Each structure stands twice: as structure tokens, then as C-alpha cells.
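B., you asked whether I could sanity-check this one before it goes into the benchmark set. Here's the sequence:
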Amino acid sequence: MKTHNKSTITNTVRKPSFKRSLVSSALLSTLLAFQPQLAFAQSNLPSEDVKKNQTDDDVEDVEVIEVRGIKENLADAQLLKRYGDTFLDAISAKDIGALPDRSVLEAIVRLPGVSIERFAGANDPDHFGVEGSGVVVRGLTHTRSEFNGRDTFTADSGRGLSFQDVPPELMGGVELYKNQSAEMIEGGIAGTVNLITRKPFDSDKRILAFSADATYSDFIEKTTPTFSALYSDVFESDYGRWGLLLNFSDSTLKAQSDGTQVGRFETQNQLVDGESVMVPRTTRLTRKQDLRERQGLAAALQWENVDDTILATAQFIRSDSSLSWTERAIELADDAVINDLVPAEGTTFDIDEQGLFESGLITSNAGWRGNDAERQPGGIFGAQHAMITRAREQHSVVDDIGLNVRYRPNDEWAFSADLQYVESTSDIVDFSVMGATRTVVGITNNGDSTPDIFLTDPANANDEMHFTNPYNYFWRSAMDHVSANEGDEAAVALDAKYTFEDGLFTSVKVGTRYAKRQQTTRQSTFNWGWLSEAWAGNGNAWFDAQGDELGAGLGDLYEAVSFDDFARGGVLTTPGGNTFLFPNESVADNYRDAESTFASLMPGWVALASRSGAIGDFLPNEINETTETNNAFFIQGNFEGEVKGLFFSGNVGARYVKIENETDGFITFPDNLPVQDDDPENFLPSDQAAFGNAASTEQTAVSDYSKLLPSFNLKLNLNDDMLLRFGYSKAIALPDLGNLRNYVEIQGDNLQIEYSGEGDDREITRAQYQRYTAKSGNPFLKPMEANNYDFAFEWYFPETVGSLTTSFFYKDLSNYFINGSTDRVYENNGVTQVVQVDGATNGDEGSVKGVEIAYQQFFDFLPGAWSGLGLQFNYTYVKDEGSPNPGLSPDKPDSSEGEGIAFDNLPLEGLSKDNVNIVAMYEKNGFNARLAYNWRSEYLLTTKDVITQLPIFNEANGQLDGSFFYRFSDNIELGLQGTNLSNTVTRTSMQVDAEGNQVGRSWFVNDRRISLVAKGTF
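And here's what the prediction gave me:
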């Protein structure tokens, strides 16, 4: 393998040869829409891979042709797929910066059967992720991640690696395994994604390479740099051959996304006599600006002895990534809106035939207005809107060290020892400060298109100064959230392989692996508290407060922010221009100073670290420690032979795995301790008062699991160009560590209060909780299991870099991860109560099945410049049957709109029935270009959104990306890369009833990005 652009590929043709059939020729002609006289070169097959499966007597002729650039990378990826010992797809990027997209995720999505999320997280569809997140393979999210064939992870609530944190400039290739063999590490029911970094022995020459680009994001109107460099060399000595490689990357990206959102629809009974109509509970306008910074380092040292019997490879990979974002949000957030959202005076709502709101001016007659009559006259005077400034910073570091030694003393025996140590940290600081004002909001729904939003002053007088006057704003609330996780894993693997001289089995391989992973998860609640809510008794602290007024001295902590070009214009309208007042960005950024900043307000918000019993930012019950040990053993036999002139090869084996988990955590009992004399908690029955003493009890849970995982892979060559492939494996997926957390958080539910007297004489006489509920993790959650079946037909064109493949897959699932409720008995303070515990559990059986069709080819047979044209196309259809929707999120924050509604007709999260990729390519005379379009059908983002508490669907959408490069010499290449050239609007909808009816939830617009790229190899 060479890391420079120019390369040669050796063509080896196996006997006996076959002629192309009329059927195959006709199919090729149909696909290309051409019927020229074809003049073909010989096929491009890899000599090293072919040598594994054939002898010198099989070789008929050899011809060397030259390929470069896109064609070279596609050829390498095609060879990996063709000669792989199980089902896989691959991306090759020999040259530094040659990965065909701007992130690892955006590159992986080009592979058949793969899709990614476009949000920061599937459970948080209110925050668009410019570079995406998460990998879904064949409709399932349960993928494993590897660096160079070794297990790796990010220390968050999941189990695998956050691919968006990995610098793409470090990657020499990506392999996606869709089935398994016995020697592979277990855990990838959906698939295993192996990220491959470069090694010095990939080339026998010294290589100096660089890649530099400047990326312009048109929405935020910022330009940011990326730079990477590579040094690789090979040295000969008396003690053998040495190789050294250093690869460094540093990238920055600034981006912006605007979101228009309509909240959950609530029934309003008072608007139409005798009829119920549904009006959106909230509207939300958001502007989010991202700063993504990534630094990466990959280093490799290789040594091979003089006799070529020992090969040692030491590798170090570091990924240091941070994502900081600031959000401004305008959110209709009245505190008592049920049956209190009404039309502005003199107007009416337009309601459709189903009783759903279509358009109108919304205000509210609800809520306490405070004691300041001048600022808050009585009557209907606007719906309260929160003016939110939010700052969030996430920093993740992964350090991965590996050492592999291979020893081959003779032609029969080969031994391998592999050592690895991974250390990972992941920290989040998230802080929101909220001002508030009262407005009238107008909404005009436009079907699938973005709604029109109109904001005006509460009196609906079109006051042009209302939104820029601090007289109309007050300090409302604050919310903080912190997580600080760290984990490490040490692993050792020992393998031995014996090669037979003859017989059906060519070799047998045995091995063992031991791994120990330890992780500490610290995750706080989302800690909301009031600053100056009128209903809290201290009145409103106004932005322009002076003298002795509440909030005086905070006058410099707000700023004017323009939404003039919101969503690229035409969506938001206000009198006097779209400028509003928000808490300063610096207030949200300086979280550690916020508590002292707002101390004068006597707030109901207390920072996380100031809570009673907190250890740093965390209560004891917010800290979980997990230790997981994994022991595995495998045996695999590799075979090949010939039957009736057809060559076959494959492997059969089994892997035995035993996993032990030990998880420390807490049971937290309700906090029913009264604060004031008239609190309802003073009137609870004695047993409930005793049970709710806010106590925490430490607990340790120990579990174990073992399983035998057989596998079988068979490949049958029909002729020189066509083959059939079959694969079966028993696979497992380990639960996310967030769902294994050992915690139970009990709280009283449905407090019933009885009163006596009326008016000023009204008093509480009795209070009682109707039941107790709890949120929990499940340290006894078992791995999901699946029987995976794959069958494929693969046709590799002998004339060019090209193939046509069809794969059928079926996954028979059991122990599926779902959310469930069980009744448990808990004792505290001498009292026993029955608690309904809601958390992760194992479900019954289900299945996922589908088909993948993939085609790629360069049309070398076309005349002249047309011969540089090429095309890639793949389509995936996925369907699930009987698979219960998990309804799980290992780090889902608390809700703001109640418990939501449970529907039993939901598909699997992340599963799109249809996925399509089309890539038009050109490479000729130093030019190479590509236009890549990715499309996926509607899919379920989350069963229960954290805001609406409803299922949220991502509507069908596609994105167009492209690139154009020119190679000035063998050393220098310049070009442009474009992302989101289609200016795609990402739209979500929410399911509102059991019949599956949906209404629009959000519309997001983000940057189009253009990168000027320079690459050099010397």
C-alpha cells in the first residue's frame, strides 16, 4: 500500500476463465445507458489478497495498470470487500486529507445500510448538530467502534466512540463489518466500525505530506482553518527494518443553525362553544452557534527483524475534541397555559377540520403579574416569553496506546500478542440564564414549510420600541447541568495460528482476550430555579431596575441581539425589526460566578455545587462507578476448496465470552421535608413523612453473563467476476453504561390535598401521595442477542474499478433493550412502601430484515474525456417486525412538560425504511470531482422528547455535498469541497395520538460550507 497518489495495482486472473454472459452484458448496458463497442483493460485485483486463496499454478497472466486519486481509493475499498472473510464495506483514504468528506461520520454515511443523526443527540431534537452524531447500521444503533481492530470508547453514557470527535485527517481508512467471524471482538449486533490509522510500513519510502484548508460557513459568515501533517519513513539496519510515522491534525469549525419550533398541542375548551380545539402550547425560535475544535495525533513505530519472522507495531492515538455552543432562544413559556391560551383581543383562531390550530395571534390571560401595577396592568396582557441565553461546552479526550507483536517461526505456525490501554475523559458544563417579557405571538402554519412567526407588544399596538426597551424585561430563572466522566480499559489478546499444507482446512486459529474497563460517571440533574418569578413572592427584577429596586446593579448584564436574518429571512417579523434583549453571553459563559452574580435576587436557584451534601458539583446519588471484566476465547477454522470447478473459501468457529459487572450507586428516597409552615408536606400521614426523609443508601450490584457465539462464513466464486456469499453469526450487544448505572431515585407522585374553610380561612387539613414512583438504571440488564443471517451476490467488473452487489440480511433479536415498569418494595426509616420503578429492562423477541443494492463503476470505455466519468449508487431497505421500541436514553434529562403519552405503534428509533446514496464522479488528466447526494426516509428520532414528551420523527430529507480538485503535479493538489450545497431544511414532526397523526414540530436551517483545500505529498 502506498500513501502517495500514484499507485499500481497488480491484476491476477484465476483459472478457469469464464466469458461474460449475454445477461450480464445487457445488465451493464442498462445501468450505463450506453451500448458502445467496449475496449477493456484487464481486471484490477490485489496480488497479496489473491495469494491467500490461490497457488502460483492458478495464475494465468499479470498486467499492471496505473490508477490514482478517487479511483485508487475506490479500488482499495473494493478489494477489501471482495476478499474479506465476512460481510464488510470499506472506505480507503491513502493520501492525507483524502477522506472524501469533512468528518468521519459524513464519510461513513456513504456506505450501504448506514445512516447518521443530524442532531446533537437523538434524545435532544431541539439542538441541531452540524456534523451529525451517532451511527445507525441496517436500522440498529448497536454498533461497536474500534481503532485498528481494538476496542475503543468515549467516556460518556454510551459504550462506543463518538465518531464526531475523531479527526478525519488521521484516518487511512474505515471498515464496516456487518457480520462477524469468531476472531472478532463481540458486541456489534448492528455492525463493527473499525477506524484505521496509517502505519510506516504502508510504504517503503519516506513520505512528507500536508493538508490545509480554510472553511467558510455562509450562515455564521466565519472562516476557520484546518491543518494536518504527516511524516513517515523506513530505515534499514543490521537489526532489521524500522519504520516511524507521525500524523498531526488541528481543525476549527464555526457554524450556525436557526430553528423554528411549535410546541405540543393542548386542548383548549373555552375557545369554541361545545367543541375542543388544539392550540400549540409553545413556540420557540432558536439561534445556535457552534465552535468545534479538534486536535489529533497518531504515531506508529514498527520493527521487523532481518529474518522477517517478527513484526512489532506500537501505536498511539490521541483525539482531543471540544464542542462549545451558545444558544439564544425566544420561547413562549407561560407557567399556566392549559385552557389559558386565547386569541388576541379582536381576533380569532383559524382552526382546520380536525380541530387543530392553523393560524392566529396567541396571548394569555393566565399568570400572576406581580405587584407593580405600572408595569403589569390587569386583564389580558400578553403571554410570557422566556429570553434564554445558554452556553454549553463539552470536552472529550481519548488516548489509545497499543502494541502488537507477530511471530512466525516457520511456514506452519504464527503467533500474535496484542496489548492495549485506553483512557478517556468527557466533561460537560451547561448553563442557561433566562430573562422574560410578555408578548403576543402570531403563528401561520404553512404545511410542510416553515411557519411564519409574528411577535408584537402585549397590547397588540405594534410598538416598534417594545423589544428593545429594558423596561419590558425581567430576570426569570437559571438552570445548570454538569457531567464529569472518566474511564479506562486495559486489554491483552493472544492468538496462535497453524497452517496446514493440504486438505479442506487451510489453517486453524485460536485465541484469548482479557479486558477490564472501569468508568466513573458523574451526571447532575438539570437544575432549574427561579431568579425573580412574580409568583415566588419577591416580585420581578426588571432589566432597568435602579436604586432600591430588586435587581438594581444587574443593568449591564443584558445585551441586544439581532434576529434580522433569522432562518435566512422571511420567517420572523416584529414591529421595528427583529432585535431583542437577552442576558449577556458572558453571564452564561461564566457559570462559576453566576451564583454570586444573582445573590441579590434571593433566588430559588441554587448552583449545583451549593446543594446540601454535594461533592463538588454532584450529589452522592449522581455518581456511579462501574467495573466490567471480559474474558473471551475463540477457535476458528479457515477453509478453501473446489467443487465442480467452482472455488470456495470461508471460516467456521465459535467464540465464548464471559462478562462480569460490578456497579456502585445509591437509592435516594423522597425529599418530603417541609420548608414553611403551610407546606402540604406538614400534613402527610406519619408513614409517608417518615419514608420521605431525603435519605440516600449506598448499594453495590454484581452481575455476570456468559454466551457461546458460533459463526460461519462461506464464499463461492461462480466465475472470475461473480461470487455468492453467506454468513451466519450469533451476536450480542452490550448495554450502554448509562443504562447499567446503579441508582434508584424515588419520589412521591400525585399529591392529593384536602382543605377546610373558604377564602382567607382556607387551610390544609390533610395531604397524601397516591403512589411512589422511581427512575432507575438497571445493573442487571442482560446483553441483547441476535442470530444474524446474510446472503449476497457480488459481481466485480473485470474491465474497470466497478461492482454490482446485492445483500439480503435478517436479524432475529432477543433480550431487546426496552423501557419498562415494575413494582418493588423498599424500606426506609422503619417504613415499607411499594414503588413503581421505571427503567431499562430486557424485552422479548423481534426481527430486522432488509436488502442492500450497491453499484459503482468508472466508465473507462467511453471515448476521450468522457472516460473519466464514474457513478456510485446504493439503496437500502430495512423493515422491523415485532421489535419493541426501546424508549430508552442513557442520559435523558428531565422533562418540562409532564409525563407525556405512551404509544405502542412506534417503529425502532433511528430506522429509516429507505436510504439512498448517489455519487457522480469524474477523474481525468489531473481533474477529479464528485457530487454526493444522501437521502433517507422518515424515521423516529426519540420515543419521548424531553420538552414535548411526545414521539419526534425526522422527516425524509437529503443533502448534497461536492468537491473539485486539480492535481498540478505528482506532489501538489488544490481544490474546493462543499457541504450542504442543497441548503437543506431539516424538519421534524411529533405524533399526537395513538392513531399515528403527526403535526410539525421544528424546522432547522444551517450553514452551507465551502472549503479551499491544498494538499501536498513529497
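One thing to flag: DSSP finds seven helices and 50 strands in the chain. Otherwise nothing jumped out at me.
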